[in-house]
Specification:
The protein has about 325 residues and is of the alpha/beta class. It contains 10 helices and 12 strands. Bound molecules: guanosine-5'-triphosphate, S-adenosylmethionine and iron/sulfur cluster (2 copies).
Length: about 325
């Protein structure tokens, strides 16, 4: 079992399979980075899987594939199948922008993927285009329909921004409610890669917009998720993720692995240790020692907004969010 120095069990790994993306979201990657990680520096799916096998043997029960845009990586279904075949009861999920999902959903489901979280920031084609800097909406909506059709469980993530998509909170909530998909509104997290003039909506602002039309109860946190959940009178649940808070850190169960093999103990800290050289030379014991070290050094909580206000300079498209 992987237990950190605050007695938290780490049983969730978020794996970013590429930092590349076919969108240029204004809050994440408005411009193509000056240079991408060279392809030869990426761990192969076989190498990533060898490492994940160790992690699963150590008690990991949940794996989320993310990116950049994970659907850009060729043979993703084969990677998913490797994990599924090794541990069929693992909670195997993916976070995606869904642009390429229509053609991939069935293959991913057949390979063993169980759930997807899709980012949808607008239901208006021109607003979606302004945010992603590409005409994306129809493909995304078709991707979601296909995912539901093939039986994948779907959640939606939206980043509400003042003057851009803040008038669509209820529309997106209702789009999700009609399809029985949970929506989580993520407060915009400042980072040095985003467009400078963005102002995100905070939780009280979001709640007061929803209150104009719906009554709801506060359900608190669900398990280990950073999402705070609320329940409408008809039982539909929506969530809000407030990254500047740290109450959910007490129950944190996750670490992150980047496409180049950096193991990151916390979203907000720049420290990371590499497993790359170990897995490349087949030294699985060495990789397991790095895993234990990273878990041991996991910080108690983020320090965003605290006295010593530590701000991560690492981009979300690198860490996988
Ligand atoms: N502060 C903080 N935010 C996180 C963490 N994990 C996820 N988030 C935020 O939640 C967003 C959405 O996460 P997802 O990729 O949908 O994954 P998830 O919330 O673990 O998904 P579920 O397993 O469905 O609960 C991320 O982009 C982050 O903004 C975390 O460990 N700390
Ligand atoms: C980095 S993306 C990777 C997966 C995929 N490309 C997608 O967009 O779903 C993962 C999540 O991070 C969120 N995200 C990225 N930058 C963010 C920011 N600055 N503030 C809040 N959420 C952010 C996105 O909305 C998305 O839900
Ligand atoms: S949020 Fe996702 S889709 Fe948008 S630029 Fe970042 S990685 Fe790409
Ligand atoms: S901010 Fe760090 S400690 Fe808190 S939930 Fe996220 S990864 Fe865990």
């Amino acid at each position: 079992m992987l237990v950190d120095s605050y007695d938290r069990v780490v049983d969730y790994i978020r794996v970013s399979v590429t930092e590349r993306c076919n969108f240029r979201c204004n809050y994440c990657m408005p411009e193509k980075p000056f240079s991408w990680v060279p392809k030869e520096n990426l761990l192969t799916f076989e190498e990533l899987f060898e490492f994940l096998r160790v992690a699963i043997d150590e008690g990991v029960k949940k794996i989320r594939i993310t990116g950049g845009e994970p659907l850009l990586r060729e043979d993703l279904d084969k990677f998913i199948k490797m994990i599924y075949d090794y541990k069929p009861d693992i909670d195997l999920a993916m976070t995606t922008n869904a642009f390429l999902l229509k053609g991939a959903a069935q293959k991913l489901k057949d390979a063993g993927l169980k759930r997807i979280n899709v980012s949808i920031d607008s239901l208006k084609p021109e607003v979606a285009q302004k945010i992603a800097q590409k005409d994306v909406l129809q493909n995304v909506l078709d991707g979601v329909d296909e995912a539901l059709k093939v039986g994948l469980k779907v959640k939606v993530n939206m980043v509400p921004m003042k003057g851009i998509n803040s008038d669509e909170i209820l529309d997106l909530l209702e789009y999700c409610k009609d399809r029985n998909m949970t929506i989580r509104f993520i407060e915009y997290m400042e980072n040095k890669h985003a467009q400078e003039d963005i102002q995100g909506l905070k939780s009280p602002e979001l709640l007061s917009i929803i209150k104009e039309k719906y009554s709801f109860e506060d359900e608190g946190f669900d398990g280990h998720s950073p999402s705070h959940y609320y329940k409408l009178e008809d039982g539909y649940e929506f969530g809000i993720i407030e990254p500047y808070e740290d109450d959910f850190c007490k129950k944190c169960n996750r670490i992150r692995l980047t496409a180049e093999g950096h193991l990151i103990p916390c979203l907000y800290f720049d420290e990371a240790m590499s497993i790359a050289e170990f897995v490349k030379r087949g030294d699985i014991k060495g990789a397991a020692l790095v895993l234990k070290e990273v878990v041991k050094n996991k910080p108690e909580k983020n320090r965003w907004g605290g006295e010593d206000d530590e701000v991560s300079t690492r981009a979300f498209y690198e860490t996988g969010g």
